[in-house]
């Protein structure tokens, strides 16, 4: 009887221990591996990555690389190697919508590519949206601006996109204008409209001013701009030119009257860079 009780106790203890192990190892979720993209960096050139959404500061592991968000641009980072032949490392970037973008970084003396755009597979993304994100990440070369009531609108670049590839041939040539909108006031600025037109530069006495509205083919969605902040946005048009006697008028304004009006001459349009 005593041997039976000892055997029964040992059996129950074993069962309880096995149950505890099973309880610890069983979960109501599983893990799915996520891949990472490999990017090569060098010490004497900057690498740019444009994301499909605005991003927040990421996490880097190594001090041998420089990672910076582009000032005034919410969806672009620049990378650079601070040390030659640094050990391979990784970088995590997070979108404001919670998405994770993971990269494996390695050193290369002369990388074949220096500019990248994150393309999401399987999603029906407007090709002009992708082009706009690329344009927004380009370095500006113009500084034509207007300021009113501590709100500044600056034209930082004009680009001509030829679209010679078959999949974009239907778009024709696109003229992109890239802007920086700066709010130097403490009060938020919320644009209600953005209007574009071609107008005579000089008004004829007692004559009507000829003004021809033009509609953008694409415009970055406009939203509230917080006080003491800046934002980049782009506008795309079907390619056009204007005569020396006319000018492009760009109007950005709130419903309460804070309106900015930027005039662009034909000479400034001809300074566009070809992509």
List keywords for this structure.
Immunoglobulin-like; mainly beta; four-stranded mixed β-sheet; 40% strand
Give the helices and strands, then pairings.
Layout: H1 2-25, E1 37-41, E2 47-50, E3 55-60, E4 65-69, E5 76-81, E6 89-95, E7 100-107, E8 115-117, H2 127-136, E9 144-148, E10 151-161, E11 174-183, E12 193-200, E13 211-213, E14 218-219, E15 229-238, E16 246-253, E17 259-265, H3 266-269, E18 273-274
Parallel strand pairs: 1-7, 2-8, 10-18
Antiparallel strand pairs: 2-5, 3-6, 4-5, 6-7, 9-10, 10-11, 11-15, 12-13, 12-16, 14-15, 16-17
First CA to last CA: what distance?
92 Å
Number of domains: 2
> Total number of helical segments?
3
CATH class of the largest domain: Mainly Beta
Written account of the structure:
With 275 residues, the chain is mainly beta. It folds into 2 domains: 89 residues, Immunoglobulin-like (Sandwich), CATH 2.60.40; 145 residues, Immunoglobulin-like. The chain contains 3 helices and 18 strands. Strands 9, 10, 11, 14, 15 and 18 form a 6-stranded mixed sheet that branches. Strand 9 and strand 10 form a beta hairpin. The longest helix has 24 residues. The N and C termini lie far apart (92 Å). The model has no long low-confidence stretch (mean pLDDT 83).
Short structural summary:
The protein has 275 residues and is mostly beta strands.
